[in-house]
Amino acid sequence: MFLVSACLLGLNCRYDGGNVLSRKLIQLAKRYTLIPICPEQLSGLPTPRESCEIVGGDGFDVLKGKAKVISRSGLDLTEWFVRGANEVLKLVKLFGIKKAVLKDLSPSCGVKMIYDGTFSGKLKRGVGVTTALLILNGVEVLTEEEVLNKEEED
Per the domain annotation, does 73 fall within a domain? Predict the structure, then answer.
């Protein structure tokens, strides 16, 4: 069983109202149960919505209260991103999920890289808010590429 960013499965839940469908990832549904999630939607944020970036750190720093999630227009949406992460954690506990495949670069789901908080398109190493909370709760979080590479090796 895998928790999967809903946008990777073709659901139109990204900030811009679109998705980033991965047909290869959908093929995993033949072998595993895939549970789609979108932390932003679970928090109550609308789709579409303004793009957001983490300012002052990464998802771990947000959870510690040392960084914030800010929209392009300057709104502090930290509370919404933390709420969404906690809603995802409820699903993890309910279903006993041990692995997640999340969309890299996202302020919620980033696994390896996130935007640097300047809205300039620059990236930095770090994780999103939901990824940080899942890691802190023992969930293995992978990028789409990592899980597909593992599948090819098996």
Answer: no
The total domain count for the chain is 1
Go through 42-65 and write b for each residue having 16 or more CB atoms within 10 A of its CB, e for each that does not. bbebebebeebbbbebbbbbbbee
- Express each pLDDT in 5-29 by its tens digit: 999 999 999 999 999 999 999 999 9
**CA distances in angstroms from 78 to 14, 84, 142, listed in the order given:** 17, 10, 23
- Other residues' Cβ atoms within 10 Å of the Cβ of residue 134: 26
Enter the pTM of the model: 0.96
Q: Is residue 133 part of a domain?
A: yes
Range of the domain at 39: 2-48+79-114+125-153
